Amino acid sequence: MPTISIDIRKKYSIEMEEKIIESVYSSCKETFKLPDHDRDIRLNIHEPHLFLCPTNLDKPEYFTLIQIDCFSGRSIEVKRTLYKLIIQSLSTLEIPKDHIKIIIREIPTENWGIRGGHAACDVDLGFDIHI
Question: How far, in Å, CA of 11 to CA of 6, rounded?
């Protein structure tokens, strides 16, 4: 049940924006082995002067920041796989690999209120977070 935020500095076509969202979501779903209904993802488009990025990028307009808030428990191997899948997927959309930053923030299940105000640690999530 990750919450995913994608921040970009460039306005794309609606079709391209949907492809960016789907690329990141599909990578998370596959790697974290999430159920089909588990979607909580947003694309935030910023004016470049309001979203600064590293100055050494060749194409700063393509800078893409992905932040994934998720339950604690996934192994480093799973995280490495996720990073690679996201980079591969977005690079097919011509976003330079070195212009993508991915941050995973792991939060203990007792710190998530879900499904009508229950602590996630008290709910059958329907998937394993210890992978």
Answer: 13
* Cα 85 to the center of its chain, rounded Å: 11
CA 28 – CA 110 distance, rounded (Å): 22
The series of mean pLDDT values per 10 residues for the chain, 131 residues long, is: 94 97 97 92 97 97 98 96 98 97 96 91 89 93
Calpha distance 18→22 (Å, rounded): 6
Name residue 66's beta-bridge partners: 6, 102
CA distance 8 to 11: 8
Q: Taking the complete model, does pTM exceed 0.85, yes or no?
A: yes
The strand ranges marked E within 10-126 are: 41-45, 64-71, 100-107, 113-114, 118-119
Tell me how many helices (H) and strands (E) the chain has.
2, 6
What tokens were used for 77? 């191997």
Q: Quick one: angle between helices 14-32 and 76-91, nearest 10?
A: 160
